[in-house]
Amino acid sequence: MRSSSRLVVVTGGARSGKSAFAERLAAHLAAASQSGVTYVATAEARDAEMAARIGRHRRRRPASWRTVEAPRDAIGALRAAAPHDVVLLDCVTLLVANWLAAQAEAAGVDLTGSDALPVETQQVLAERVAENAKALVTAAVRRFGWTVFVTNEVGWGVVPPTPLGRLYRDVAGQVNRRLADAAQAVYLVVAGQAVEVKALACAPHDAAARLVAGTGEGVQR
User: Residues in the active site (predicted)?
Assistant: First the structure.
């Protein structure tokens, strides 16, 4: 069943073209609703390479778009956005990393210089990020205007070698699932091609029914 919210999720791997697709989508949605676009940026230019990436994104965006830098308080940015604006948030996975760092800092947990990360600590950090994700979804679905989230499928790569890496992978996947459940549409971008996966999705009982029907099981002979 489709959600009635105006939340859209665009996901995919690195360099898949998901940001470019989301930007074009936001532009078309804004034109259709005769509204502006608020771009919520979650990246921080902590080194030259990231600064260059941010610069490329900025040059690609229309000058008329309003940009809000919100590496940690994306929830506040959504709540403060103009009601009719299309809000494009890029990206959720960077936001999750920032949330993890902020929650670890608040809890006095050192995430640098050590691979050790107790299971109990991981659970606390994951629960706090889940609370943030819930608030993010609530802020999005309560908006009148469209909200577009860009995120990454980080779990499609190799298994991270450290507990922190595995925690991040797991938390990012859980956040993506929460966003997708609340979204009206979810687009998977692969090699620059977008597919609306939520339109193709089915529940386990529906999948089982189709498989059984295809094999003829349960038919009287």
Answer: 57
Q: Kindly report the length of the chain.
A: 221
pLDDT in tens, 52-98: 877 877 788 889 999 999 999 999 999 999 999 999 999 999 999 99
Q: What share of the chain is helix, strand, coil (3-state, %, to 5)?
A: 50, 15, 35
List, as residue ranges, the binding site. Answer: 12-19, 41-43, 58-61, 69, 90
pLDDT in tens, 119-157: 999 999 999 999 999 999 999 999 999 999 999 999 988
Residue 149 to residue 158: CA distance in whole angstroms: 24
- Contacts with 66 (C-beta within 8 Å, 6 or more apart), sequence order: 36, 37, 38, 39, 85
Domain ranges of the chain: 7-215
Fold for the domain defined by 7-215: Rossmann fold (3.40.50)
57 carries an active-site annotation? yes
Of 28, 57, 84, 205, the catalytic one is 57
Binding-site residues for GTP: 12-19, 41-43, 58-61, 69, 90
Both tokens assigned to 154: 């980080």
Separation between Cα atoms, residue 18 and residue 132, nearest integer Å = 23
Element (H, E) at 194: strand 193-196
Interatomic CA distance for residues 208 and 166, integer angstroms: 32
